[in-house]
Amino acid sequence: MVNTAQSIIELENDNLVQTYKRPPFVLTHGDGVTLYDESGKAYTDWVAGIAVNALGYNDAGLQAAIQKASIGLIHTSNLYYTAPQAELAAALVEKSFADRVFFSNSGTEANEGAIKFARKVAYDSGAPDKTQIVAFSHAFHGRTMGSLAMTPKDKYQVPFRPLMSDVVIAEYNDIASADAAITERTCAVFIEPVQGEGGIHPATDEFLQFLRGKCDAVGALLVFDEVQCGMGRTGTLWSNEPSGVNPDIMTLAKPLAGGMPIGAILTTEKVAAHIQPGDHGTTFGGGPFITGVAKYVLDRVSEPAFLAHVRETGEYLQERLSEINSPLVVEVRGRGLMVGMELNVDVGPVIEAGYQHGLLMVNAGPNVIRFVPPLTIGKPEVDELVEKLTIILAGMGEKP
């Protein structure tokens, strides 16, 4: 069988559940921040596997870490001790607020585990009716039944209801709304310090500080979902750092293993003390292969010079995008290399036009282009992006 692009597309269409709409080309390999399709066409990558491929493609250090990890154990289950899991957990504890770590396989799994942790803490504390979860408008916490209940978008929720009960949605960055929603029945408040799928909205420092105080007042856990905005994406290792606010639980995933599936729940000792053998588990989470690779990625991303590069390039990206003179542009916002450009039109045609210009882009809602490239991207790629986007938007503006 000749694997032409068309034959591969037909094979996919005939055999995979159709939950994704894909452009009509087949990616084959990458180098640095560039991906290539079957015809050899190059695309500068502003998606990074949806904020996953922090080190880009064909990275020599990551390849060496993968090769080294593959020589050892691939999987043992969590019935046994392995060094890579323990070493990654220790590194995460050292570099964060946390005292302990639980490993899973994805961001939505991490958030599901965090829900369980919060309810177990309330149950153990003699408050079995303290089950309410507070989340926020435009949030995205995942697509499984608990995390989906905290993702208030009808498109995602309606066909799958009833979802997990006892979830209250407050307005993001609205202190009065959060104050009313968080009560003595609240066991946890979930928030993305910088929202991703919801349109690239950073929480204000004042809002996060209020949530910390209100959670302490009612005995609720504060949970930071940093699945997309953590691990250096916003220019600090953790996106909550500028606020000075630490959570009780933080969930991680996307970039932690540089492109391979892993999730993590970071927690304080006070929370972890309530989680006993049998309360939670995972077959694949924390396997020695994946944690060995993730340790390399964590060490690399947490280097001060690496984070400084993210901040500098991210500031440059926002500056250059803001220079685009188009009536379609409403706002440019974000932090680090997590930037959104809001338009007053549907961004779908802009993203499609980007393919013709050798750009891979992704949306964050119907009106926002989300830029979450490999963290190794540089200013020359930013200049190329702005030049091509200017042409694309000018063409859009000329249409009747």
Short key terms for the protein model shown above:
2 domains, 7-stranded mixed β-sheet, alpha/beta, 400 residues, Aspartate Aminotransferase, domain 2, globular, single chain, Aspartate Aminotransferase, domain 1, 4-stranded mixed β-sheet, 38% helix, 17 strands
Describe the overall structure.
The chain has 14 helices and 17 strands. The protein has 400 residues and is α/β, with parallel strands linked by helices. The protein folds into two domains: 139 residues, Aspartate Aminotransferase, domain 1 (Alpha-Beta Complex), CATH 3.90.1150; 230 residues, Aspartate Aminotransferase, domain 2 (3-Layer(aba) Sandwich). Helix 3 runs antiparallel to helix 11 and helix 13 crosses helix 14. The chain is globular. The mean pLDDT is 97.
